[in-house]
Here is the input.
Amino acid sequence: MAAGVNVRFAGELQGFIQQRVLKSGLYSSTSEYIRDLVRRDYEQEEKRKWAWLRNELSAGAEADESEFVTLDAEDLIAKARKRKKANAR
Here is the structure.
């Protein structure tokens, strides 16, 4: 079930919205226009997050195999537990 949100626009913003809805014919209602804006903003944010992740991972993905270090999972877990214990004090 969708939650309702009421928003009021006045002045220039109201006129701009009316142009987008009524004059362009692209949207059948103000609600449809606002939903489209929110969807686009959401998609842009998702793209930004993925771009950030790709950027963060690129160094590892492009690294030469000689740069990799072998890690032992049990050793990492033990060190993490030790740090957690030390920080709890």
Notes: DSSP finds three helices and no strands in the chain. The two ends are 46 Å apart (CA to CA). The CA atoms of residues 72 and 78 lie 10 Å apart.
